[in-house]
Amino acid sequence: MGMGVKCGDKIVVKAEGADEETAIEQMETFMKNNL
């Protein structure tokens, strides 16, 4: 999966559902570690 996001870019992530906070935390960790 590619999003075309580069280091320094700002993005908005939305999640809905019972585990939305966990999902957002995991996405944040992934982005910090891989961009």
Spatial gap, N to C terminus: 14 Å
Stretches with pLDDT under 50, minimum 5 residues:
none
Question: Which term fits the overall shape?
Answer: elongated
Counting helices, strands and paired strands, the structural category is mainly alpha
Describe the main β-sheet briefly.
none
Query: What portion of residues belong to β-strands?
Result: under 5%
Number of helices: 1
| Overall mean pLDDT | 87
- The number of strands is 0
- What portion of residues is helical? 40-55%
Order of helices and strands: H
* Cα Rg: 11 Å
* Tally of separate domains: 1
Short description:
The protein is mainly alpha-helical. Helices cover 43% and strands 0% of the residues. The chain contains one helix and no strands.
Itemize the secondary structure elements and their pairings.
Elements: H1 20-34
Descriptive notes:
By secondary structure, this protein is mainly α. The protein has one domain (1-35). The protein is 43% helix and 0% strand. It has one helix at 20-34. The longest helix has 15 residues, at 20-34. The protein starts with 19 loop residues before the first helix and ends with a helix. The model has no long low-confidence stretch (mean pLDDT 87).
